[in-house]
Design a protein that fits this description.
Blueprint: E1 12-16, E2 21-24, E3 48-51, E4 56-60
Antiparallel strand pairs: 1-4, 2-3
Length: about 80
């Protein structure tokens, strides 16, 4: 089983815009952490894509171990 690259040890705050589509990097290879830039191509990973329900700041996981992807759940502290 291929494991994602740990891209960081703290979450990244991203200001989401209502109605806008986002893709969270699940592989850890993206240079635009925490959002996907296509570096997963050729791997077993695919981004998690969603449309923001409202304009707000959310904290995105960079350690790739969250149980609530794409959002940070504090797993990086363990």
């Amino acid at each position: 089983m291929e494991l994602p690259k740990r891209a960081g040890d703290t979450p990244i705050a991203i200001q989401l815009e209502e109605g806008k589509r986002y893709s969270w990097c699940s592989c850890g290879l993206s240079e635009k952490i925490a959002l996907c830039d296509g570096k997963h191509k050729g791997s077993a990973f695919t981004p998690i894509t969603f449309v923001a329900e409202k304009t707000e700041t959310k904290y995105f996981c960079t350690c790739k171990a969250t149980k609530n992807p794409p959002y940070c759940d504090g797993t990086h502290k363990k």
